[in-house]
Design brief:
By secondary structure, this protein is α/β, with parallel strands linked by helices. It has one domain: Aldolase class I (TIM Barrel, Alpha-Beta Barrel). Helix content is 38%, strand content 15%. The protein contains 14 helices and eleven strands. The strands form two sheets. The chain has a nine-stranded mixed sheet with strand order 7-6-5-4-3-2-1-8-9. The protein has a two-stranded antiparallel sheet with strand order 10-11. The longest helix has 17 residues. The radius of gyration is 19 Å and the shape is globular. 47% of the residues are buried.
Protein backbone atom coordinates (compact mmCIF):
# COMPACT_ATOMS: atom_id res chain seq x y z
CA UNK A 1 0.00 0.00 0.00
CA UNK A 2 1.43 3.31 -1.11
CA UNK A 3 -0.33 5.82 1.10
CA UNK A 4 1.56 7.73 3.79
CA UNK A 5 0.19 7.62 7.31
CA UNK A 6 -0.63 10.81 9.18
CA UNK A 7 1.95 11.52 11.86
CA UNK A 8 0.87 12.86 15.20
CA UNK A 9 1.17 16.61 15.12
CA UNK A 10 0.29 16.84 11.42
CA UNK A 11 -0.65 20.32 10.22
CA UNK A 12 -4.19 21.47 10.85
CA UNK A 13 -6.59 21.70 7.92
CA UNK A 14 -9.06 24.43 7.08
CA UNK A 15 -9.25 27.31 4.64
CA UNK A 16 -5.62 27.08 3.58
CA UNK A 17 -6.08 23.60 2.07
CA UNK A 18 -9.16 24.79 0.14
CA UNK A 19 -7.10 27.59 -1.41
CA UNK A 20 -4.30 25.18 -2.39
CA UNK A 21 -6.75 22.88 -4.16
CA UNK A 22 -8.34 25.80 -5.95
CA UNK A 23 -4.86 26.83 -7.12
CA UNK A 24 -4.71 24.06 -9.72
CA UNK A 25 -3.73 20.87 -7.91
CA UNK A 26 -6.00 17.83 -8.04
CA UNK A 27 -7.58 16.91 -4.72
CA UNK A 28 -6.89 13.30 -3.77
CA UNK A 29 -8.73 11.74 -0.83
CA UNK A 30 -7.26 8.51 0.51
CA UNK A 31 -10.12 6.73 2.26
CA UNK A 32 -9.11 4.03 4.74
CA UNK A 33 -11.84 1.44 5.29
CA UNK A 34 -10.03 -0.04 8.31
CA UNK A 35 -6.94 -2.14 8.95
CA UNK A 36 -8.19 -5.73 8.53
CA UNK A 37 -6.07 -7.61 5.99
CA UNK A 38 -5.68 -11.12 4.62
CA UNK A 39 -1.88 -10.70 4.43
CA UNK A 40 0.52 -10.23 7.34
CA UNK A 41 3.40 -8.27 5.81
CA UNK A 42 6.49 -8.12 7.98
CA UNK A 43 7.10 -4.43 7.32
CA UNK A 44 3.48 -3.21 7.49
CA UNK A 45 3.15 0.26 8.99
CA UNK A 46 -0.25 -0.76 10.39
CA UNK A 47 0.97 -3.90 12.12
CA UNK A 48 -0.24 -2.68 15.49
CA UNK A 49 -3.67 -1.57 14.26
CA UNK A 50 -5.27 -4.80 13.05
CA UNK A 51 -7.59 -4.95 16.04
CA UNK A 52 -9.10 -1.51 15.55
CA UNK A 53 -12.76 -1.53 14.47
CA UNK A 54 -13.50 -1.37 10.76
CA UNK A 55 -15.52 1.58 9.52
CA UNK A 56 -19.18 0.73 8.94
CA UNK A 57 -20.71 0.82 5.48
CA UNK A 58 -22.87 3.77 6.50
CA UNK A 59 -19.85 5.72 7.75
CA UNK A 60 -17.92 5.05 4.55
CA UNK A 61 -20.83 6.10 2.34
CA UNK A 62 -21.02 9.36 4.28
CA UNK A 63 -17.31 9.87 3.68
CA UNK A 64 -17.71 9.14 -0.03
CA UNK A 65 -20.41 11.82 -0.17
CA UNK A 66 -18.19 14.19 1.79
CA UNK A 67 -15.32 13.56 -0.65
CA UNK A 68 -17.63 14.44 -3.54
CA UNK A 69 -18.76 17.59 -1.76
CA UNK A 70 -15.12 18.54 -1.10
CA UNK A 71 -14.53 18.38 -4.84
CA UNK A 72 -12.32 15.30 -4.83
CA UNK A 73 -10.85 14.49 -8.24
CA UNK A 74 -9.43 11.18 -6.99
CA UNK A 75 -10.72 8.79 -4.34
CA UNK A 76 -8.26 6.05 -3.37
CA UNK A 77 -9.86 3.33 -1.24
CA UNK A 78 -7.41 1.36 0.90
CA UNK A 79 -7.16 -0.77 4.05
CA UNK A 80 -5.73 -2.98 5.39
CA UNK A 81 -7.18 -4.77 2.41
CA UNK A 82 -10.36 -3.05 1.28
CA UNK A 83 -11.33 -5.66 -1.32
CA UNK A 84 -12.11 -8.30 1.33
CA UNK A 85 -15.07 -6.23 2.53
CA UNK A 86 -18.51 -7.40 1.29
CA UNK A 87 -19.47 -3.75 0.68
CA UNK A 88 -16.41 -2.88 -1.42
CA UNK A 89 -18.12 -2.89 -4.81
CA UNK A 90 -21.01 -0.87 -3.40
CA UNK A 91 -18.61 1.80 -2.19
CA UNK A 92 -16.94 2.03 -5.59
CA UNK A 93 -20.29 2.15 -7.39
CA UNK A 94 -21.55 4.88 -5.05
CA UNK A 95 -18.46 7.02 -5.68
CA UNK A 96 -18.90 6.69 -9.43
CA UNK A 97 -22.62 7.50 -9.27
CA UNK A 98 -21.75 10.65 -7.33
CA UNK A 99 -19.44 11.71 -10.14
CA UNK A 100 -15.97 11.26 -8.63
CA UNK A 101 -13.76 11.12 -11.68
CA UNK A 102 -11.10 8.61 -10.62
CA UNK A 103 -11.78 5.88 -8.07
CA UNK A 104 -8.75 3.71 -7.28
CA UNK A 105 -7.87 0.92 -4.89
CA UNK A 106 -4.54 -0.22 -3.48
CA UNK A 107 -4.71 -3.99 -3.03
CA UNK A 108 -2.62 -7.09 -2.41
CA UNK A 109 -4.43 -8.57 -5.40
CA UNK A 110 -5.46 -11.89 -3.85
CA UNK A 111 -9.22 -11.40 -4.17
CA UNK A 112 -8.85 -11.05 -7.95
CA UNK A 113 -7.73 -14.69 -8.20
CA UNK A 114 -11.46 -15.46 -8.09
CA UNK A 115 -12.71 -14.66 -11.62
CA UNK A 116 -16.19 -13.76 -10.41
CA UNK A 117 -14.86 -11.41 -7.73
CA UNK A 118 -12.63 -9.78 -10.33
CA UNK A 119 -15.62 -9.29 -12.65
CA UNK A 120 -17.78 -7.81 -9.88
CA UNK A 121 -15.11 -5.28 -8.98
CA UNK A 122 -14.49 -4.28 -12.59
CA UNK A 123 -18.24 -3.96 -13.17
CA UNK A 124 -18.56 -1.70 -10.10
CA UNK A 125 -16.74 1.00 -12.07
CA UNK A 126 -13.28 0.97 -10.50
CA UNK A 127 -10.97 3.15 -12.60
CA UNK A 128 -7.58 1.77 -11.56
CA UNK A 129 -5.99 -0.80 -9.28
CA UNK A 130 -2.63 -0.65 -7.53
CA UNK A 131 -1.20 -4.13 -6.89
CA UNK A 132 1.31 -4.44 -4.04
CA UNK A 133 4.00 -6.83 -5.28
CA UNK A 134 6.98 -7.33 -2.99
CA UNK A 135 9.05 -9.83 -4.93
CA UNK A 136 9.46 -11.37 -8.39
CA UNK A 137 8.59 -14.86 -7.16
CA UNK A 138 6.82 -16.71 -4.39
CA UNK A 139 9.96 -17.18 -2.30
CA UNK A 140 10.53 -13.44 -1.87
CA UNK A 141 6.95 -12.17 -1.98
CA UNK A 142 5.38 -14.83 0.24
CA UNK A 143 8.30 -14.59 2.63
CA UNK A 144 7.40 -10.95 3.22
CA UNK A 145 3.60 -11.30 3.23
CA UNK A 146 3.86 -14.41 5.45
CA UNK A 147 1.02 -16.00 3.48
CA UNK A 148 2.00 -19.02 1.36
CA UNK A 149 0.33 -18.81 -2.03
CA UNK A 150 -0.20 -15.05 -1.98
CA UNK A 151 2.11 -14.49 -4.96
CA UNK A 152 0.34 -17.16 -7.02
CA UNK A 153 -2.99 -15.54 -6.21
CA UNK A 154 -1.92 -12.05 -7.26
CA UNK A 155 -0.49 -13.45 -10.51
CA UNK A 156 -3.78 -15.17 -11.21
CA UNK A 157 -5.57 -11.95 -10.31
CA UNK A 158 -3.55 -10.01 -12.86
CA UNK A 159 -4.35 -12.62 -15.51
CA UNK A 160 -8.07 -12.52 -14.68
CA UNK A 161 -8.14 -8.73 -14.99
CA UNK A 162 -6.37 -8.84 -18.35
CA UNK A 163 -8.88 -11.45 -19.54
CA UNK A 164 -11.67 -9.01 -18.62
CA UNK A 165 -9.97 -6.31 -20.67
CA UNK A 166 -9.06 -4.24 -17.60
CA UNK A 167 -5.81 -2.41 -18.32
CA UNK A 168 -5.53 0.29 -15.63
CA UNK A 169 -3.06 -1.71 -13.55
CA UNK A 170 -0.44 -0.09 -11.35
CA UNK A 171 2.08 -1.48 -8.89
CA UNK A 172 3.91 -0.65 -5.72
CA UNK A 173 6.76 -2.41 -3.97
CA UNK A 174 8.03 -1.74 -0.46
CA UNK A 175 11.84 -1.93 -0.63
CA UNK A 176 13.37 -3.86 2.28
CA UNK A 177 16.51 -5.91 2.88
CA UNK A 178 14.84 -9.11 1.71
CA UNK A 179 13.81 -7.90 -1.75
CA UNK A 180 16.14 -5.07 -2.77
CA UNK A 181 18.55 -7.24 -4.76
CA UNK A 182 15.65 -8.75 -6.71
CA UNK A 183 14.18 -5.40 -7.82
CA UNK A 184 15.60 -5.67 -11.37
CA UNK A 185 13.88 -9.08 -11.73
CA UNK A 186 10.70 -7.62 -10.28
CA UNK A 187 10.92 -4.83 -12.87
CA UNK A 188 10.81 -7.48 -15.59
CA UNK A 189 7.73 -9.01 -13.93
CA UNK A 190 5.97 -5.63 -13.97
CA UNK A 191 6.93 -5.02 -17.61
CA UNK A 192 5.72 -8.47 -18.72
CA UNK A 193 2.38 -7.81 -17.05
CA UNK A 194 1.92 -4.41 -18.65
CA UNK A 195 2.10 -2.43 -15.40
CA UNK A 196 2.80 1.09 -16.64
CA UNK A 197 2.83 2.97 -13.33
CA UNK A 198 5.00 1.56 -10.51
CA UNK A 199 6.38 2.95 -7.27
CA UNK A 200 9.43 1.46 -5.57
CA UNK A 201 8.90 2.68 -2.00
CA UNK A 202 11.79 2.86 0.45
CA UNK A 203 10.36 1.28 3.60
CA UNK A 204 8.89 3.60 6.23
CA UNK A 205 10.12 2.75 9.76
CA UNK A 206 8.12 5.48 11.50
CA UNK A 207 5.59 3.02 12.91
CA UNK A 208 4.60 -0.63 12.69
CA UNK A 209 6.54 -3.68 11.61
CA UNK A 210 9.51 -1.87 10.06
CA UNK A 211 10.06 0.09 13.27
CA UNK A 212 9.86 -2.91 15.59
CA UNK A 213 11.91 -5.07 13.20
CA UNK A 214 14.18 -2.28 11.98
CA UNK A 215 17.52 -4.09 11.94
CA UNK A 216 16.17 -7.05 10.00
CA UNK A 217 14.12 -5.09 7.48
CA UNK A 218 15.47 -1.60 6.81
CA UNK A 219 18.46 -1.48 4.46
CA UNK A 220 20.87 1.39 4.24
CA UNK A 221 19.85 3.76 1.47
CA UNK A 222 23.31 3.47 -0.08
CA UNK A 223 22.68 -0.27 -0.47
CA UNK A 224 19.09 -0.05 -1.72
CA UNK A 225 19.38 2.93 -4.09
CA UNK A 226 21.49 1.18 -6.79
CA UNK A 227 18.90 -1.61 -7.09
CA UNK A 228 16.05 0.92 -7.17
CA UNK A 229 17.78 2.86 -9.94
CA UNK A 230 18.36 -0.34 -11.92
CA UNK A 231 14.65 -1.12 -11.66
CA UNK A 232 13.76 2.35 -12.95
CA UNK A 233 16.26 1.96 -15.77
CA UNK A 234 14.70 -1.39 -16.73
CA UNK A 235 11.37 0.37 -17.05
CA UNK A 236 12.80 3.14 -19.18
CA UNK A 237 14.29 0.53 -21.49
CA UNK A 238 10.72 -0.71 -22.07
CA UNK A 239 9.39 2.82 -22.60
CA UNK A 240 7.83 2.89 -19.12
CA UNK A 241 8.64 6.36 -17.81
CA UNK A 242 5.94 6.53 -15.13
CA UNK A 243 7.83 4.20 -12.80
CA UNK A 244 9.07 6.08 -9.75
CA UNK A 245 11.02 5.85 -6.50
CA UNK A 246 9.34 7.14 -3.34
CA UNK A 247 10.66 8.30 0.05
CA UNK A 248 14.29 8.64 -1.01
CA UNK A 249 16.93 11.36 -0.59
CA UNK A 250 17.57 12.91 -4.00
CA UNK A 251 21.36 12.79 -3.66
CA UNK A 252 21.21 9.05 -4.40
CA UNK A 253 18.98 9.50 -7.49
CA UNK A 254 20.48 12.38 -9.47
CA UNK A 255 20.22 10.48 -12.77
CA UNK A 256 16.44 9.98 -12.47
CA UNK A 257 15.13 13.13 -10.82
CA UNK A 258 12.03 13.05 -13.01
CA UNK A 259 11.13 9.68 -11.47
CA UNK A 260 10.79 10.71 -7.83
CA UNK A 261 7.20 10.53 -6.59
CA UNK A 262 7.44 13.33 -4.03
CA UNK A 263 8.76 15.88 -6.54
CA UNK A 264 5.98 15.11 -8.99
CA UNK A 265 3.35 14.81 -6.25
CA UNK A 266 3.91 18.31 -4.91
CA UNK A 267 3.19 19.74 -8.35
CA UNK A 268 0.07 17.73 -9.08
CA UNK A 269 -1.84 16.81 -5.92
CA UNK A 270 -3.20 17.95 -2.62
CA UNK A 271 -3.60 14.72 -0.64
CA UNK A 272 -5.78 14.13 2.41
CA UNK A 273 -6.03 10.92 4.44
CA UNK A 274 -9.22 9.85 6.21
CA UNK A 275 -8.57 6.86 8.46
CA UNK A 276 -10.43 5.26 11.39
CA UNK A 277 -8.01 6.73 13.92
CA UNK A 278 -6.81 9.97 12.29
CA UNK A 279 -7.44 12.59 9.63
CA UNK A 280 -4.49 14.15 7.86
CA UNK A 281 -5.44 17.24 5.82
CA UNK A 282 -2.04 17.51 4.10
CA UNK A 283 -0.12 14.25 3.74
CA UNK A 284 2.80 15.94 1.98
CA UNK A 285 3.39 18.72 4.51
CA UNK A 286 3.02 16.38 7.49
CA UNK A 287 6.03 14.31 6.45
CA UNK A 288 8.28 17.32 6.96
CA UNK A 289 6.72 18.01 10.35
CA UNK A 290 7.21 14.56 11.86
CA UNK A 291 8.62 11.73 9.80
CA UNK A 292 11.28 12.94 7.32
CA UNK A 293 14.05 15.50 7.55
CA UNK A 294 17.35 16.75 6.23
CA UNK A 295 20.45 17.35 8.34
CA UNK A 296 23.34 19.79 8.48
CA UNK A 297 25.17 17.60 5.95
CA UNK A 298 22.57 18.62 3.36
CA UNK A 299 23.37 22.34 3.53
CA UNK A 300 24.64 23.71 0.25
CA UNK A 301 23.06 20.89 -1.77
CA UNK A 302 21.61 22.06 -5.08
CA UNK A 303 18.61 19.79 -4.45
CA UNK A 304 17.93 20.99 -0.91
CA UNK A 305 14.64 22.75 -1.65
CA UNK A 306 13.23 19.83 -3.63
CA UNK A 307 14.33 17.00 -1.33
CA UNK A 308 12.45 15.72 1.73
CA UNK A 309 15.54 14.04 3.18
CA UNK A 310 15.10 10.63 4.79
CA UNK A 311 13.07 9.07 7.59
CA UNK A 312 13.72 10.53 11.03
CA UNK A 313 13.75 7.04 12.53
CA UNK A 314 16.35 6.02 9.93
CA UNK A 315 18.57 8.91 11.00
CA UNK A 316 18.17 7.96 14.64
CA UNK A 317 19.34 4.39 13.95
CA UNK A 318 21.88 4.83 11.14
CA UNK A 319 22.92 8.49 11.28
CA UNK A 320 23.38 10.78 8.28
CA UNK A 321 26.75 9.73 6.89
CA UNK A 322 25.17 8.51 3.63
CA UNK A 323 23.64 11.90 2.84
CA UNK A 324 25.92 13.70 0.40
CA UNK A 325 25.23 17.25 -0.80
CA UNK A 326 25.01 17.60 -4.58
CA UNK A 327 27.32 20.49 -5.48
CA UNK A 328 27.20 20.08 -9.25
CA UNK A 329 24.32 18.90 -11.41
CA UNK A 330 24.60 17.82 -15.04
CA UNK A 331 22.47 19.76 -17.49
CA UNK A 332 20.36 16.73 -18.39
CA UNK A 333 19.72 15.97 -14.71
CA UNK A 334 18.63 19.56 -14.04
CA UNK A 335 16.28 19.28 -17.02
CA UNK A 336 14.74 16.11 -15.58
CA UNK A 337 14.12 17.84 -12.26
CA UNK A 338 12.47 20.76 -14.01
CA UNK A 339 10.29 18.34 -15.96
CA UNK A 340 9.15 16.59 -12.76
CA UNK A 341 8.34 19.87 -11.02
CA UNK A 342 6.24 20.94 -14.00
CA UNK A 343 4.02 17.89 -13.53
CA UNK A 344 4.88 16.59 -17.00
CA UNK A 345 6.82 13.45 -17.88
CA UNK A 346 9.18 12.33 -20.59
CA UNK A 347 8.64 9.42 -22.94
CA UNK A 348 5.66 8.06 -24.76
CA UNK A 349 3.86 6.10 -22.02
Amino acid sequence: MSAERAPRGAPAGGRQSEIAVAGGKRLKIVLFTGYACNNNCRFCIDAGKRGLPQKTTAALLREVMRARNRGADILEIIGGEATIRPDFTGLVAAAKRLGIKDVLCATNGRVFADPEAARRIVDSGIDALIFSVHGPDARVHDGLTRVPGSFAQLRKGLANLRALGFRSLNGNTTVVRQNMASLPRLARFYARNGVENVEYIFVDPTYGGARSGFSGLVPRISEAAPYMRKALAAGRAEGLYRWKARYVPLCHFTDCLDQISEVNERSLFRTEHWAPDFTNPDAVASRAVVSRRKTARCRGCLLYRDCEGIWTEYLRRYGDSELRPVLKLRGEDAARLKLAKSGRRRGRR
